[in-house]
Design goal:
Helices cover 64% and strands 4% of the residues. The protein is mainly alpha-helical. It starts with 15 loop residues before the first helix and ends with a helix.
């Protein structure tokens, strides 16, 4: 006879290789708190509905709490032969309290049990990710305010385009993280569904109270279809999609950080604590953390692709393929949390080389658009003004000059509309200040962005605190 808790129908023990192949205890043991919380809520509900005696319920709850202490302390030995966290805990409970432990699984399947654990875990970790997004947003705002008057070249095609405030550049990443936060809020909403009570796929014959369990575990809603409850992995795919987009944003910031701290740019210097050296070249200061974040983006995107591929051909309801949902999302969670935490530190420790950035916008042609705008404001059609500005740039390149070096007489060779105020019009400070359209790079507009960001962060903080409390209450 099989030694498994499900082994009544089998006459042979499971091949050891099969045990190892199908076991998930190596990675799903991190959900032990969720599994125990779900089992306590389930046992309490069974007792409330008269399915379980009060004495058995008390013994089960006490036994589960003792097992949680053992796992917390490291004294609990997990058995790969018991496959997963659910069976490991149930077997230890039954060994400890006897028959009552065997009654815990009444009106429950591993299918809805694992779904519950995963919902609880993803819900909790989603809030943790949102809190880290918020902290990185704070770091961006702090850095933007610290270097609020620094002007840098803005780029298109990685070619210098127009002068912008460094703070404006940083606030672009704040806006990306704002959308990331909203996406994870959507993930939370889809994870905040209670599947327990769906059984293996069709519900249960016992008179259970699913709403009671949902209240115990602070779920907002129940799954309304038992097949959907045990087969749904949308919330995991959504988490991985949101995580992939977030990592792409961090990867773009990483690429810019790597460029900015290179000798060729020298726009910023990273703190020594956030860099490494070379075993051969003593002068090196490598932005390894930024490179790792950029590199780890691929593995998170890969987890999304793997999950989509796993689910795409599965018939309803549960299939063992769905066990593949765990390792990918666990790794994605760890990667995203690390990347956000480390980047907040990088931003706070980063030093901006003001003089280098100032020289960069003084020794280029990023003010050429302002030259064309000057003429357009004087009445010249913009297309003609654009051509005149291009001719002036060509003239400067041939003579190894910048636009600011030209005399009024030289400017007037290209158009009689140029007057003495052209010099002020193309100064980098004025190029920036004059871009005062909504969302633009002028100091006034960036100040508006930062004020709006602070209001947004206050609202985000309330959301995180509310949802964090739900997780704390549960545990």
């Amino acid at each position: 006879m099989s030694e498994k808790l499900w082994g009544g129908r089998f006459t042979k023990t499971t091949d050891e290789m099969i045990n190892e192949f199908q076991a998930s205890i190596g990675f799903d043991k991190r959900m032990y708190r969720e599994d125990i919380a779900g089992s306590i809520a389930h046992a309490t509900m069974l007792e409330k509905c008269g399915i379980l005696s009060a004495e058995d319920c008390d013994r089960i709850v006490a036994g589960l709490k003792e097992i949680e202490k053992q796992i917390d302390s490291g004294a609990f030995l997990f058995d790969v032969g018991l496959e997963d966290i659910h069976m490991n805990i149930e077997k230890r409970l039954t060994d400890a309290i006897g028959e009552a432990g065997g009654r815990l699984h009444t009106a429950r399947s591993r299918n809805d049990q694992v779904a519950l654990d995963t919902h609880l875990y993803v819900r909790r970790e989603t809030v943790a990710v949102m809190a880290l997004i918020l902290d990185m947003q704070r770091a961006l705002v702090e850095t933007a305010e610290k270097y609020g008057d620094v002007i840098m070249p803005g780029y298109t095609h990685l070619q210098r385009a127009q002068p912008i405030l460094f703070s404006h550049h940083l606030m672009a990443y704040f806006a990306m993280l704002e959308r990331d936060f909203a996406r994870f809020a959507g993930v939370y909403a889809r994870a905040d569904l209670m599947p327990l009570g769906a059984g293996a796929l069709a519900g249960t014959t016992f008179p259970i109270d699913r709403e009671f369990v949902a209240r115990q575990l602070h779920f907002e809603r129940l799954y309304t279809n038992s097949l959907d409850a045990v087969s749904d992995r949308d919330y995991i795919m959504e988490f991985l999609a949101a995580a992939s987009i977030l990592m792409v944003h961090l990867s773009r910031l990483s690429e810019e950080t790597i460029l900015w701290c290179s000798r060729e740019f020298s726009f910023v210097e990273l703190d020594d604590a956030h860099c490494t050296g070379s075993s051969m070249m003593p002068q090196k200061k490598n932005p390894d953390v930024s490179e790792l974040v950029r590199g780890k983006t691929g593995r998170v995107v890969g987890h999304l692709m793997a999950m989509l591929t796993t689910v795409k051909g599965l018939p309803l309801a549960y299939n063992k393929d769905l066990q593949e949902d765990k390792e990918g999302i666990f790794d994605a969670i760890d990667t995203v949390k690390f990347s956000l935490a480390v980047y907040a530190r990088i931003l706070r420790g980063m030093k901006v080389n003001r003089a280098v950035m100032k020289r960069a916008v003084e020794e280029d042609f990023s003010n050429a658009t302002d030259l064309a705008d000057y003429l357009a404001k004087k009445g010249l059609p913009f297309r003609e003004a654009h051509a005149v500005a291009g001719q002036a740039v060509h003239y400067c390149i041939e003579r190894k000059k910048w636009l600011a070096d030209l005399t009024l007489e030289e400017f007037q060779k290209f158009s009689p509309l140029f007057a003495a105020d052209i010099k002020d019009a193309i100064r980098p400070e004025n190029c920036v200040a004059n871009r005062n359209s909504s969302g633009g790079t002028s100091p006034a507009q960036v100040k508006n962005q930062i004020e709006a960001a602070r209001q947004l962060m206050a609202a985000e903080r309330k959301t995180v605190e509310t949802w964090e409390k739900k997780q704390i209450d549960r545990t």
